[in-house]
Amino acid sequence: MQHRELGRSGLRIAPLVLGGNVFGWTADEATSFRILDAFVGGGGNAIDTADGYSVWVPGHVGGESETIIGKWLRQRGRRDDVVIATKVGWEVNPENKGLKKDYILRAVEGSLQRLQTDYIDLYQSHKDDPTTPVEETLEAYAQLVQQGKVRVIGASNFDAARLRESVEASARLGFPRYESLQPLYNLYDRAEFEQELLPLVQEHHIGVIPYYGLAAGFLTGKYRTAADLQKSARGGGVGQKYLNEKGLRILGALDAVAARQQATPAQVALAWIMAQPGLTAPIASATSPEQVTELLHATELQLSPDDIQTLNEASA
């Protein structure tokens, strides 16, 4: 599988990143292990998680996903084979959130312990913290990189103004810069990234690993009517946002391209992201090894110019 460099980081990843948000939520530990085995066995090498996964589940405190990944890494002995990306800054609880230096330095120790590793390949600001100067956040990361606890840093859910401010501060102060951006981006959610962020990441050669590449499962085609929304824990949110005229138009285009390519709508939706200029690798999660195998086939799809035009027009 052809690997792509993430920004200017030197990290090389397969064109699909496995999302760890479901580990310990809709995938128990045993299932999560099988998913991870299938992903790495199929040629994938980058796994994305966060210390906040999965605080939204009743009874969870955050760190559940990291804990499962750490157990898998230790049992399988795969640490050197994979790129581990995690995040800091989401509100885990009222006392643990944000991007202040002292909190980052404290939070990283918890992530390292749960992941059962002494370094994180890609440590990301989960979302912007407008109460903290970007310089303070970057100073914390500079310390962690210097200590060898973090190799590369990235940003998630930043707007263009704050990302530019951060990149400029890194250059001015000699701090590590954000080598990747993790935005919301898929065939349905295009406008904000393409208009505001894409020119910036291309200007600075910042890698892009978008989340919700399948629009919370909508672009797999499994939600086509209101009745379909009962199929999963995510159905309610999917229906409110995506089950509308635009969403159904995109599904129609995915069906047409999938038929031409002898592929599934999910594979086509991910292949479309992989074909976009400036995009490194979409993140997608799976709840079974079979889903992983299906998603990995997206890396083999070669969409034609006509295919891309069909999808672009339906999703414009």
From TrEMBL:
<dbReference type="Pfam" id="PF00248">
    <property type="entry name" value="Aldo_ket_red"/>
</dbReference>
<dbReference type="InterPro" id="IPR020471">
    <property type="entry name" value="AKR"/>
</dbReference>
<dbReference type="InterPro" id="IPR036812">
    <property type="entry name" value="NAD(P)_OxRdtase_dom_sf"/>
</dbReference>
<feature type="domain" description="NADP-dependent oxidoreductase">
    <location>
        <begin position="15"/>
        <end position="314"/>
    </location>
</feature>
<protein>
    <submittedName>
        <fullName>Aldo/keto reductase</fullName>
    </submittedName>
</protein>
<dbReference type="InterPro" id="IPR023210">
    <property type="entry name" value="NADP_OxRdtase_dom"/>
</dbReference>
<dbReference type="InterPro" id="IPR050523">
    <property type="entry name" value="AKR_Detox_Biosynth"/>
</dbReference>
